[in-house]
Amino acid sequence: MTDAPVRGTTAPPPADAPDPRRAVPRTDAVLADPRLAEAVHRLGRALVKRAVVGAQQQARAGAIPPAEVVDAALAALPRTATRLRPVLNATGVLLHTNLGRAPLSAAAREALAVAAGTCDVELDLTTGTRGRRGAGVIDALLAAVPGAAAAHVANNGAAALALVAATLAAGKEIVVSRGELVEIGDGFRIPDLLESTGARLREVGTTNRTHLADYERAIGPDTGFVLKVHPSNFTISGFTSAVGPEELAGLGVPVVADIGSGLLTPHPLLPDEPDAAGMLARGATLVTASGDKLLGGPQAGLLLGGAGAGAELVEKIRRFPLARAMRVDKLTLAALEATLRGPGTPVRTALDAPVQELRGRAERLAARLGEVAEAVDSVSTVGGGGAPGVTLPSAAVALPERFAAALRAGDPAVLGRLEGGRCLLDLRALDPDDDEALAAAVSAAATSTAGS
Predict the structure, then answer these.
(1) Which of 71, 267, 318, 329 has its CA 20 to 30 A from that of 17?
(2) Contact 308, 254 (CB under 8 A)
(3) How many CB atoms within 10 Å of residue 348?
């Protein structure tokens, strides 16, 4: 008589029963499936093989039947060979640093496809000889900025400023107001950046008030240049004073203006945001700015010089050895030139969107999504270290707070903001063409959060 199994345990399979793990298909057999063979062509063998091995382990553990290994491997594969995922920006922040700041225009994306292959980035096709790198984007910058006589592009805004400091002030002094020694994103501070180039800072004035006489007393034989830094991520109000480039231009040393946000010419909604053309016209010798902010292009550091001394300094900076380490690649050059020459950017479109249009979109989306959603008025910001204190009237779709996590986990992911116990999906930074995808994402999130 055979002993009965103890209650609460599983009886072992008969000794002669086949091991179910033997039914798990071999790796080479799985990879031979046409669907996975196509994925290998698209994503690479190593990435696909990892997904296959993971699916086989699930089958061996009994989590899935052996016949579902191919389907499980396909489900585990990413859409592309990068870990980056597309995100719908419904935060109301036009230039969200965590989302890569400015989304590129269609023209810039097409230019990326051209530059992704072999291209004439440093070749004169007419003569067959070496050409000047980035000549097209330099011409486009000069055409876009009245008063600019020379230009150079580095790999980001901080690099452009550091390159100026290393070229003009290594071993010398940079005269700067104490009220402009700002900290930018992730704890990086302008003073630390400048001192890393071998320059010394000569701080003048106070946090809230700096006068021309403060600069005059600091200027001497060790002065490399005077620096004006726009406090692009904060404002100081009340008992304040500052000195403009038109006054500093008479001190007999170069005046460098770091405007940060990349506004090339004035914008009516941003009257207090300095622009490159305006700063050159007011007397700045050099202007540095970012390409991936209000300009709406790729990450890049823009360096612009006015006629005469400014143009000469740009050429000196361009030939400085460190410029090679900070140069941009062909993809950036292509996207930046297309941004400058092409039609309006998504950033400019979002900035100029009429609030009535945004309200209409919010109402249509809310009606489609049912009682879980409500169209509400909202407030947007520029973000990305640009236009501090400026708010833009907007409209949003309000959902229960529980939707936030489910929307982030979706495909595409949706990032809103939590406010007043609700998840707000602000529409100002979202392309109208993405409203359909947003509605589908909310519907999927509603299903996943049902009953929670």
Answers:
(1) 71
(2) no
(3) 17
**DSSP class of 95:** T
pLDDT tens digits for range 230-243 = 876 677 778 889 99
Q: Are 333 and 121 in contact (CB under 8 A)?
A: yes
Within 95-223, residue ranges assigned H as helices are 106-116, 135-144, 157-169, 190-195, 212-218
Q: How far is CA 303 from the centre of its chain?
A: 19
pLDDT the model gives residue 12: 55
Dump pLDDT digits (tens) for 279-329. Answer: 999 999 999 999 999 999 999 999 999 999 999 999 999 999 999 999 999
Contact criterion met (CB below 8 Å) for 256 and 285:
yes
- Give the orientation angle of helix 355-369 with respect to helix 435-449, to 10 degrees: 40
3-state secondary structure of 450: coil
CA-CA distance, 29 to 20, in Å (whole number)?
17
The segments of the chain whose pLDDT lies below 50 read 1-2, 5-10
CB 425 within 8 A of CB 396: yes
CA 337 → CA 147, 183, 245, 395, distances in Å? 19, 30, 28, 33
Quick check: 218 and 204 in contact, CB under 8 A? yes
Q: What angle do CA 260, 208, 159 make, to 5 degrees?
A: 20
Structure tokens at 275: 């622009």
Contact 299, 292 (CB under 8 A): yes
Q: Which two tokens stand for residue 123?
A: 């070749």
Give the amino acid at 222: D
DSSP 8-state assignment for residue 14: P
Q: Which pair of tokens denotes residue 67?
A: 């016949």
Pairing assessment for the beta strands 129-130 and 123-124 based on DSSP bridges: antiparallel
Beta-carbon contacts of residue 234 (< 8 Å; ≥ 6 apart)? 182, 388
